[in-house]
Amino acid sequence: MASQVAKSFIKAHSTTAKFDTARRALSVGAALQQKKTLPDRTGKNIVLVDGVRTPFLVSFTDYSRMMPHELARHALLGLLQKTGISKDLIDYIVYGTVIQEVKTSNIGREAALAAGFSDKTPAHTVTMACISSNQAITTGIGMIAAGVYDIIVAGGVEFMSDVPIRHSRKMRSLLLRVNRAKTPAQRLSLLASIRPDFFSPELPAVAEFSSGETMGHSADRLAAAFGASRKEQDEYSLRSHTLAAQAQQKGYFTDLIPVKVDGKDGLVEKDNGIRVSTPEQLAKLKPAFVKPHGTVTAANASFLTDGASACLLMPEAKAKELGLKPKAYLRDFTYVAQDPVDQLLLGPTYGIPKILDKAGLKINDIDTWEIHEAFAGQILANLKAMDSDWFAQTYLGRQSKVGAPDLNKWNLWGGSLSIGHPFAATGVRLALHTANRLVREDGQVGVISACAAGGQGVAMLLERHPDATPN
Question: Which candidate in 151, 157, 451, 452 is catalytic?
Fold first, then answer.
């Protein structure tokens, strides 16, 4: 529109002075049409400078012989290389993980030491299921806002190729007593009490401790409750993989860093779980959890994934002092919690209206949506819940529905169903894709949201920084 007006003006008025007047008028008009900048609640204008992630790989593939802290080390080193910041300037590291390697219980610290950070740089590990690196980011925001530190690295790692498998409780108790026994006779007596059921191992499960139900069963029930059909779920999953494949081919995943894996030729350079199938192939798959009539399958659920991520946070003034070009302002965040049985995966439905209300925004004010895809049925249930007056009045304490987000702005580079979901690393990916999409799509405000085990969830608001680039 602006270019058309300019052309008409030039045609009618040929003098340079008149053209300059028109150009200034157009600039003022464009500025007036810009959306209002979101308020800074911290007094620090905290920014996401940049971030990286290793390629997200299907578990038991190329990363399978590594340890989690090694994968995290690659992300930390990649962040330093991409931003050019000296590791000596980092004040603090907050790192997320969910299923912990027992040898590196504070994986943030071990990864930092392995990456060559100073042993004087404190680090701690957080866990909040699928939103662990969101928690790492917001913990960093809090530290900066409080004036305790200036420069924070936040991230997360998940390594499902090697998880701790425990002896049964009976065996653990016996071995501890054997270890405390004072004589050989006492040890032999205790070992003689071993029974066959002592040898049954305890494997970690993606299940709720409070209900004993796996997340897949919860997703199946939730999809049924909101009438999300198998066909709808398969169509959404196909959408995710198709969009991810397109973004991958176009080179949009600029947050990726290559990883050299010992014993493997070449570099690991891209996510390997993106597979564009056909509706017919998806329809052939059998239910994975509720058999034989469930609707959640291996194709419309996120898969076990290995991966790590890291990002750099600081006040805007510090970034300018260091000559860095931030990607986005970290404007606001909120955490929510609800019934972990019937509403386990509805975190976005609770978190999104809360964060929008805080900022005085409506659904249509949002330019990009990056929402964690645990299951296609979970996404569809959240979309239906947000567009339901009944749900809003019954559970959200609202007079009317939140509304349905525009899917033309929703997860346009795919999501966890296709890119992969290393539990504690996904939050940083959501933030980076939001920041980079805002630039490529000429947007200003992006929403991030995710559900998590325990019936919890997060919602975050990011605003494009004027210096941002998508690379």
Answer: 451
Quote the distance between the C-alpha of residue 342 and its chain's center.
23
**What pairs with residue 446 in β-bridges?**
368, 462
Distance CA 333, CA 447 (A): 10
Active site residue 130: yes
d(CA 132, CA 126): 6
Question: Which residue is listed with tokens 């795919």?
Answer: 414
Whether 230 shows a pLDDT value over 80: the answer reads yes
| Rounded-to-integer distance, Cα 236 and Cα 297, Å | 13
How far apart, in whole angstroms, are the C-alpha atoms of residue 60 and residue 80?
28
Catalytic-labelled residue, pool 47, 67, 130, 154: 130
**Would you state the structure tokens that stand for residue 54, as one six-digit string?**
């290793």
Nearest to 224 by CA among 129, 131, 295, 141: 295
The DSSP element (H or E) to which 463 belongs, if any, is strand 456-464
- The model's pTM: 0.90
Contact 47/325 with Cβ under 8 angstroms?
no
* DSSP H helix total and E strand total for the chain: 16, 10
Rounded CA separation 324/49 (Å): 7
pLDDT of residue 35: 56
Confidence of residue 163 (pLDDT cuts 50, 70, 90): confident
Closest by CA to 312, choosing from 12, 15, 46, is 46
